[in-house]
Structure to design on (206 residues):
């Protein structure tokens, strides 16, 4: 009973910190949007002679609408995440994964990959609207439905490979060193995230 109280307390603290973080990000976006409205079509001195007021106005209107849409996208994602984690769905999902009786590494991989696929699937309508509605409206879209689908599938395949490698390596380190797994996983992620771009494939780096 006491353990549940402590766990619930931690969850409430995490939820409050998460809300504060998101509120700060919304505030920054709002201030940026307010600044763009105030600036209007005025051309900054740095761009004088390099662009015209019509293009600047269209660009700022595009950025404004894209920023407002990002509020909707972010808020929707946050609501889903909070309901999933704090509404009991996470426990149901975890119990279902455990009931499959796979090994620790396979269960962990399946747990994270299914969450990733669900998040990616939920983002599809927003991506389509942003690309074919907002960007089309301002003439910035060069994407066709076929090209969008092709890019989405390729991105999904690449992400699946990279995430699978990271997840499987991290889970193996946890199983290999249960006591100091946090150190090895941290070291693995640190090295992986700090590899020099020239050493990576041109597929991932410009």
């Amino acid at each position: 009973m006491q353990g549940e109280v402590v766990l619930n307390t931690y969850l409430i603290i995490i939820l409050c910190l998460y809300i504060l973080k998101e509120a700060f990000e919304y505030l920054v976006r709002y201030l940026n949007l307010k600044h763009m409205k105030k600036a209007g079509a005025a051309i900054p001195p740095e761009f004088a002679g390099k662009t015209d007021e019509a293009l600047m106005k269209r660009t700022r209107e595009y950025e404004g609408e894209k920023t407002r849409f990002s509020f909707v996208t972010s808020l929707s994602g946050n609501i889903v995440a909070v309901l999933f984690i704090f509404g009991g769905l996470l426990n149901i999902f975890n119990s279902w994964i455990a009931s499959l009786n796979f090994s620790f590494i396979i269960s962990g991989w399946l747990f994270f990959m299914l969450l990733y696929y669900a998040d990616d699937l939920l983002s599809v309508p927003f991506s389509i609207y942003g690309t074919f509605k907002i960007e089309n409206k301002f003439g910035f879209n060069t994407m066709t439905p076929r090209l969008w689908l092709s890019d989405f599938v390729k991105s999904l395949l690449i992400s699946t490979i990279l995430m699978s490698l990271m997840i499987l390596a991290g889970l193996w380190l946890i199983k290999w060193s249960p006591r100091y797994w946090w150190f090895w996983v941290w070291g693995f992620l640190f090295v992986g995230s700090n590899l020099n771009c020239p050493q990576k494939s041109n597929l991932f780096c410009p």
